[in-house]
Amino acid sequence: MFDLRAIRDDPTIYDRGWARRGLEPQTGRILALDEARRGLQTEIQVQLARRNELSRGIGDAKKRKDEAGATAMMAEVATIKERLPELEAEEKRAAATLDGILDGLPNLPAAEVPDGPDETANVELRRVGVPRDIAEPLDHVALGERLGLMDFDTAAKLSGARFTVLGGALSRLERALGQFMLDLHTREFGYREMSVPLLVRDNALFGTGQLPKFAEDLFQTTNGYWLIPTAEVSLTNLVSDRILESESLPLRMTALTPCFRAEAGAAGRDTRGMIRQHQFWKVELVSITAPDASDAEHDRMTDAAETVLKRLGLPFRTIVLCTGDMGFSARKTHDIEVWLPGQSTYREISSCSNCGDFQARRMRARFKPRGSEGATSYPHTLNGSGLAVGRALVAVIENYQQADGSIVVPDALRSYMGGTEVITPNG
Questions:
Q1: Which of 10, 21, 96, 336 has most Cβ atoms within 10 angstroms of its Cβ?
Q2: What positions carry a catalytic annotation?
Q3: How confident is the model at residue 266 (pLDDT cuts 50, 70, 90)?
Q4: Phi/psi at 78 (nearest 5 deg)?
Q5: Residues whose CB falls within 8 Å of the CB of residue 276, separated by 6 or more in sequence, listed in order
Q6: pTM (2 d.p.)
Q7: Which residue ranges form the domains of the chain, and what is each CATH number?
């Protein structure tokens, strides 16, 4: 939700921000609805005050035995009682229309975010690591199936497309990756590990920005729950409807959870393999900070995600997304893309976003700034993948493949794999 007073004070800031995201001017209809709604609110108050005034007048008239005057005033009260529900209903409709518009508008991009319509305008910040020279590299599908440890056909029989069955050493490797990431983030970066619900209500997804606009990308149960598309939803909403003390900030939380995505907007994309699945594991990072600390926290979160790839010895690049490629709730996003030899390209494995106060307003999360004497403000929220476990598994399989089809286990994961150094067929 946006601050209507701020929009009234300087609508051009908002129209310029939304224009950078490719939207037409919005503030004209917003302010017109806001004016109509406030006019109705004023009229309701006028009518209520008049009703109270008449009620007192009726009593006084009756004391004076002025029956004609009392009757006239009672008739006016009756008219007001008929009119008030109409005014209140009209005000609610105007408010609902206004809220619907505001709820569907994305966050304003930060000033330093590059302008552009799509991913072609993203800007590379750095590259780390040099891809191995692999003669005729195979992709993870061919490697996994040759090993007898990755089964897409059986998964399709069970659940349809975009699901995978892993077995043996690849299943252990997937688990090892998640545990390694959690240990790194909790022990070295100070994130607090959390276990959170995988099923949430509408308000939680509204708070983080998935609803109402992106319902088609989500899975919903028959009794009204939603499966989380990312642990960002559960973790960030841990502070919804709360007033935090400034001393408690920053809050840093992490969780390893399954994630569920309908991928309605990705029809036909990445249908081969594990790149784009309906169900996958991910380690999520969430930070809640004071506004003046969020930019530094964004860089810190990006470093935490990059460190996972450095420890795994996987080449990657980090980019800043342009205005046309950013997510709905973000004001600035760093994407980390890992090198995949099987595709001979870099593919996203983490997005780290600073959402400013956008989500906090929607969640009604506040904090007490130091020296504010009781006044509250909105904190900033940040989220990032630290990392997507399935894509990390793909990257390890493809980057550590050997000519005989075996997979070398990265040094950082061997203690999590019971000392296994190489994954071989049916391992």
A1: 336
A2: 261, 276, 348, 351, 391
A3: low
A4: -60, -40
A5: 162, 263, 266, 269, 270
A6: 0.93
A7: 4-103 (1.10.287.40), 119-423 (3.30.930.10)
